[in-house]
TrEMBL record:
Alphabetized Pfam families for the sequence: Mg_trans_NIPA
InterPro entries associated with the record: EmrE-like (IPR037185), Mg_trans_NIPA (IPR008521)
High-level lineage: Eukaryota, Viridiplantae, Streptophyta, Embryophyta, Tracheophyta
PANTHER family in UniProt: MAGNESIUM TRANSPORTER NIPA3-RELATED (PTHR12570:SF89), PTHR12570
One GO term describing the cellular component: plasma membrane
Family: Belongs to the NIPA (TC 2.A.7) family.
Listed name of the protein: Probable magnesium transporter
Transmembrane portions of the chain: 20-39, 59-80, 86-112, 119-139, 159-181, 188-210, 222-243, 255-275, 287-304
Cell compartment(s), UniProt: Cell membrane; Early endosome
Record key words, sorted: Cell membrane, Endosome, Ion transport, Magnesium, Membrane, Transmembrane, Transmembrane helix, Transport
Length: 369
């Protein structure tokens, strides 16, 4: 017991002031980002009521003040997250991103009245557990004393191949898959955001190192590599925000938020492993543990994706085929469809009639319910 308490005291004493600053900044970042999902979606819904929805290619949300409040909130959260990486290692900062999922889901339940199936909630838990497992067993970051060191790592063949694959995959999704499946498959929009996001984080790390060294007296702004990283960061963030808006406007926030977090975290860790060669400094046990974390994340993502339209007590024993109407469609009464099954609102249905939300294909033909 005395040895155990001594180790806890040593661990506490070993936490530097920079790590404490990074911890506070990371928690603040999760609070702001989690709330921004909800505020932005409220703004998107208001904008969609008076103009072309973002999910259909519209940009009327740019004229909606509430959307800008959410956008500013997200920017503040991202700045705090950026600063956290400059002060503390990724192993301390990254797991706290899971807090944004919990905050977003809780606010979506309270404000937007969005719900998840029980297995969807289990999927959220698996996603968070898997992400934390990976990060807790990740190696410490390398110490850098110049942005040129990061540039050398970024221009090695392995990472250049990864970057080319990411850019190619993102272009294929945007050109080929989004026009066909963007309104029905949440993974399409989130895939673009996550792929581009993995490159943005690598550039953010490089830019954070450059700024931290500059503020400490070693000016890194004289190197053109610093400005190249800055340009990459701006390009990636604009792309992420565009397709994240489309995802939020088309699908349930409680589904978009955790899936985005899981895919973004997974690809970011993969990019970090390739660029910074993290696994070269780890033993087999640590690597296997991280791979188990990946499997846990994939399991959670599968549950979230497959159960996003299910509710407790639902049954398909009748053998009828249920077709989910797109979220952006409106019925003849002008009621905006939210893409949520009718049974999710069965308590509200007892108070006032609702328009048709599903089509059931039977042997006698289509029947609206």
């Amino acid at each position: 017991m005395s040895g155990s308490s001594g180790s806890w005291r040593d661990a506490y004493k070993g936490m530097s002031s920079d790590n404490i600053k990074g911890l506070v900044l990371a928690i603040s970042s999760s609070l702001f980002i989690g709330a921004s999902f909800i505020v932005k979606k409220k703004g998107l819904k208001r904008a969609g009521a008076s103009g072309l929805r973002a999910g259909s290619g519209g940009y009327s949300y740019l004229l909606e003040p509430l959307w800008w409040v959410g956008m500013i909130t997200m920017i503040v959260g991202e700045i705090a997250n950026f600063a956290a990486y400059a002060f503390a290692p990724a192993i301390l900062v990254t797991p706290l991103g899971a807090l944004s999922i919990i905050i977003s889901a809780a606010l979506a339940h309270i404000i937007l009245h969005e719900k998840l199936h029980t297995f969807g909630l289990l999927g959220c838990v698996l996603c968070v557990v898997g992400s934390i497992t990976i990060v807790l067993h990740a190696p410490q970051e390398q110490e850098m004393d110049s942005v040129l060191q990061v540039w050398d790592l970024a221009t090695e063949p392995a990472f250049l191949l990864y970057a080319a694959a990411v850019v190619g995959a993102a272009i294929v999704l945007i050109v080929q898959f989004i026009p066909l499946y963007g309104q029905s498959h949440v993974m399409v929009y989130i895939g673009v955001c996550s792929l581009v996001g993995s490159l943005s984080v690598m550039s953010v790390k490089a830019l954070g190192i450059a700024l931290k060294l500059t503020f400490s007296g070693m000016n890194q702004l004289v190197y053109p590599q610093t400005w190249v990283f800055t340009l990459i960061v701006l390009t990636c963030i604009i792309t992420q925000m565009n397709y994240l808006n489309k995802a939020l406007d088309t699908f349930n926030t409680a589904v978009v938020s955790p899936i985005y977090y899981v895919m973004f975290t997974s690809l970011t860790i993969l990019a970090s492993v390739i660029m910074f060669k993290d696994w070269d400094r780890q033993d087999g046990t640590q690597i296997v543990t991280e791979l188990c974390g990946f499997v846990t994340i994939l399991s959670g993502t599968f549950l979230l994706h497959k159960t996003k339209d299910m509710v407790d007590g639902s049954s398909s024993s009748s053998g009828n085929l249920v077709i989910r109407l797109p979220k952006h469609m409106e019925d003849s009464n002008g009621f905006e469809q939210e893409g949520i099954p009718l049974t999710l609102r069965r308590q509200e249905c007892t108070k006032s009639p609702r328009p048709a939300r599903h089509l059931i294909i039977t042997q006698d033909g289509p029947e609206a319910v």
